[in-house]
Amino acid sequence: MVGAIPEVNANELIRSSSRTVATVVLVMVCVVTGPMQAQQHGAFRVGSIEAEPGQIISRLLLVPSGVDEGTEIPVTVINGSQPGPVLALIAGTHGYEYPPITALQRVRRSLDPAELTGTVVLVHIANLPSFLGRTIYYSPIDGKNLNRAYPGRPDGTVSERIAHVITTEVIEQADYVVDLHGGDGNEALRPYLYMPVTGREELDEAVRGMAIAFGLDHIVIDEGRLLDPTQSIYTDQTALTRGIPAITTETGQLGSNDPRWVDMAESGIWNLLRHLDMLAGEPQLEASVVWLTDYEVIRSPASGIFQPSVREGYAVAAEGLLGVLLDFFGDPISEIRAPFGGIVNYVLGTPPVSEGEPLAMVSRIVER
Prior knowledge:
By secondary structure, the chain is α+β, with helices and mostly antiparallel strands. The chain folds into two domains: about 45-275, Zn peptidases (Aminopeptidase, 3-Layer(aba) Sandwich), CATH 3.40.630.10; about 295-365, CATH 2.40.50.100. The chain is about 20% helix and about 30% strand. The chain has six helices and 19 strands. Strands 3, 4, 5, 6, 7, 8, 9, 10, 11, 12, 14, 17 and 19 form a 13-stranded mixed sheet that branches. Strands 16-15-13-18 form a four-stranded antiparallel sheet, with no helix packed on it. It has a two-stranded antiparallel sheet with strand order 1-2. The protein is globular.
């Protein structure tokens, strides 16, 4: 039956319960060791931003200049009136993905620290150069993809320095991390999230609970190898390699800031806060989740113009036509076909494509 909660690698990672209460002690030596201990409650500091219990403080976090120009990261710290976990919500890793950015602005206005247990760190726009430059994937300053630059370097280019600041000031202080994406400006995308599987039982149980609680109806099981903490590459991997549960969400497409996508991201955040017992109440869970696995990103064999033959969310057969790649005169270069039968998570929705860039992502449906 499609929608049942599947097993992964013959273990009991995915069970029938719709909500998991899993607490993990997250220490800087990057291991999961047991239940989270009671925390001392006081001021919480992110760089130069400090919030006392019951306060909301918003400031620009400086990324100093180096081999290229510096930048700033707009960050809000919401320190609850009661001690509890630290949840880091990171938006704008790709600057053309607007719905999560707007969702965090809404959360900032609506979340009352008097009702909050623990601390929420809102990274409003991780990649301000890309946001202001309206660029997909890459920074207009150094040409790098921030979500391939982690954990960063203090002496690297601007994307690496941004990653270093977010790693050291935000991720390494968090108990839970969500990397909020929205389908880049060129991607026609059906909302889904990535649920990483690490092979560490307690960590995976906490991640599964977060994934279900966020409330999206398509969940991609990501069984990629857990990377070296010093070469984590991705935002969520930077948390996971440090023993911190993390998921990556996708709510939006094609540079749209439509309220539908914003609502979806915001609703997921409120659900997660309730799931983690940081707010009172129960999360509103999705009644029927479609579980996906073995995802594959199909990349362009050449630069040119892509004409899609499918839409986001379509079911395709193995070798089904995803689209046609044309040269700049309009003559066909190659047909792009699905590597296996499954669901189209996203497909390129604008014509230009450079060699090696994504054309589509396809995932297998898990059936039980």
